[in-house]
């Protein structure tokens, strides 16, 4: 499935929100191996804390619906993502299209010398409207940034060790 039209059929979720988070890591492995490891959706549970990831529709490629549930005990947050672009081994684009988490995200792999790969993840989340969103984001952003960076570092270690393919 390709994105068709300005929103790819995903409405406002495909438009960038005002909550923006970026994280970068260098992985000592070639870009095709790094990209393939990232696209192994169910194994994302190995490097994203307290999260279970599964493919709900499709084969994990373009058009697929991915579900990530993050939680501890009975409390959980469900994140639904539609895969809107796969340009292996360089770029993956998703749109978070659930009830709470909404907005586009991307992961880019850039090959570097010596079989090293720079991985950049970028998310643009929609925030609650009005004062609630303006007040919440400065509190939520540091934790979001740290957890994304920590997850990417763990991802890189698992790929380098050959434990994630």
Model description:
This protein has helices at 31-38, 130-160; strands at 19-27, 51-57, 65-72, 75-87, 91-97, 102-112, 116-125. The protein is of the alpha+beta class. Mean pLDDT is 89; it is low at 1-7. The protein has two helices and seven strands; from the N terminus they run E-H-E-E-E-E-E-E-H. The longest helix is centred in the C-terminal third of the chain and has 31 residues, at 130-160. It is globular and about 50 Å long. A seven-stranded antiparallel β-sheet has the order 1-7-6-5-4-3-2, covered by helices on one side.
Radius of gyration: 16 Å
Strand content: 35-45%
Low-confidence stretches: 1-7
Number of helices: 2
- The counted number of beta strands is 7
Average of the residue pLDDT scores: 89
Level of helix content?
10-25%
Oligomer: single chain
